[in-house]
Amino acid sequence: MKWALKQRRSFSCSLPALLALLLFCASLPAAADVIQAGRDVQSAIDSAQPGDMVLVRAGEVNSFVVDRPLTIEGQDNPTISAAMQKPAIKVLSDGVTVSGFSIRGVAKDTTAKFNYYMQNPAAAANAGLDDPNSAIVVMGNDVAVENCSIFGAQVGIWAENVRGLALRNSSLEGCDIGASILQSREILVSGCRLEGCRKYGLNVEGSFDIEIADNSIVGNSNGGILLKESEEGAVSHNRISQNTFGLSLWSSSHCQVSANTADHNQYGILVTDSSNYNNITDNLAQDNSYSDIVTGFGIGISLQENSSYNLLAGNRATGNFNGLELSRGCQYNAVYGNNASDNRHGIRLNENRNNLIFGNNFYRNDINAYENLSLNIWNASRGNYYSDYRGRDGDGDGIGEEPYSLPGPESQSFDRMPLVRPFQGDVNSYSAAREEVARYALFPPAVESIPTTAVADGVVVISRQAPSSPPKWSDSSLHDSFDPSAPPFQKEIKL
Hints:
With 495 residues, the chain is mainly beta. The chain folds into three domains: 41-243, Single-stranded right-handed beta-helix, Pectin lyase-like (Pectate Lyase C-like), CATH 2.160.20.10; 266-450; 451-494, no CATH class. Helix content is 12%, strand content 40%. The chain is built from five helices and 46 strands. Strand 42 and strand 43 form a beta hairpin. Residues 1-13, 446-451 and 462-495 have low confidence and may be disordered.
């Protein structure tokens, strides 16, 4: 009896722990199932539970919609064809991974699109009539598209208002736009090939926290990468070649553009109307030259149209028409520790003031440094090295005793501390470069930045020339003037 009572008491004491264990086991997620799918992928998706994997066999398969968190993996590159206003793959759910598909897209065709909606009024009632023909549409968060190839779509991958999108190791070729990502955040594009697109390889607009790394951006007719009205972009280690605009920042801020190679573009790296701590550092811009306008014309790295408070440092520009360029209303930029060689102009500044240029090496350029209708600051605690400088260094401190006069129409600038040997200092001290800007950029506002006024019928009209947006090749003739066809900004004040 005593033994039996002891056993009953022992069992009674362990019962709560046993119940807790059973409840814990019941709460564990079931092991993910692997579902095999053939041509009808949608049926496999409809039968799957969240977290399952759908393996799709090789061959031609039908388009599908993913409305639950799944991994959809193609084996041996099954092929899907998109249709008019019907993507090959549409992702509606969060937490989806799609990989291993080859997709044939549908090009832009306005007439066919109009006929489609006329024949399918129900589809028109539930659709954005301006939506492009997209191969993959992403509408969920935390989505990955990997190891896919897309060809011939109006837009290869379209995503809008999403958070957490990763595009990895995929190719987007022969599209109007390879990938278009709008009003989104936490974006990664890595290891992709975006090639032969008619507008942009990669178009990112109104987005935040973007990483674009280790991609090949080649042969896109307009732009390779456009980062527009976006913040906190990191663009690094990309090969950007044979585009009109290789990489364009437009109205973007707090971006880091580093260690990219830009070659054989009309513009290698173009920064337009972009201010507030964009760092353009350690890039190679070489042989950016096209002869459509002027023989050999092409720009390595260009800051344009009111781009201010940026850092251009540690870059190498060689074999371009203009190696480095600042044009039209750019102020308070630091240009530091760059090497510009074997260009038509090592650096050219047009219609700017208050930029600080120091610690750079300009050598073997036809014209090492050139200033047009500008007034900038060409030395701080040190100046720049110019291979055509012939001044003396009597005290041996490495700084010439005679100033270097900057050539150019109406140029009033001098480098008062030109270096007699190439600068080999610490080009990574970027915070020090910004402090030099604050200390030395002391000129008053430029006259050309003051708007013009006129009185007409009792109304004061204040006008300021508008920058081109987005930038177009036809807007510029050697970057010395605005596009005369661009309308001015105007504001009316009643008298």
